[in-house]
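A favour, since you know our structure tokens better than I do. What I am after is a single protein written out in full by you. Could you add the entry underneath, on a fresh line?


***
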Amino acid sequence: MVERLWTAGEMPPRDGLYRPDDTGLEVHVQGPGAYHPDAGQPIPFRIGEPFDVVRSIDEDGNTAEVDTYFESPLPDGSGWMSGGGGQMGNIGYLARLNTDRSLRWVAVMDYSNPFVGVHYEGLTAVFTNDWRNLLTLDLTGPAFA
């Protein structure tokens, strides 16, 4: 289901880290707004428990359209990072793609705002959203490898 949505240019509506095999982990993100005194600061990000992806998508019945703002090759040549948002201004997503640009995982976040860029420090990716806030992910970590 997740891979079919991604291929169609859509993503699940619930905050989560989704894989093409329809497994997922909860994602908890809070990001301050553009005029918040903390703009330009790190985005709090936490991985939670596994959840039933198919049931969640079936119960919600809605999906979000993918608006891609960037695709960037990973420094080790193992694939790509993609980022952007959805049709609502508060939605952000990050996706790790394989070398053939097939989906490895996509993280959907309702309150992160769209991600507009990335730079790398080894295999640590530092993403910037449209509020200039930063989200740092170790791409070698168990949830992201």
User: Anything to note?
Assistant: The first strand starts at residue 10 and ends at 11.
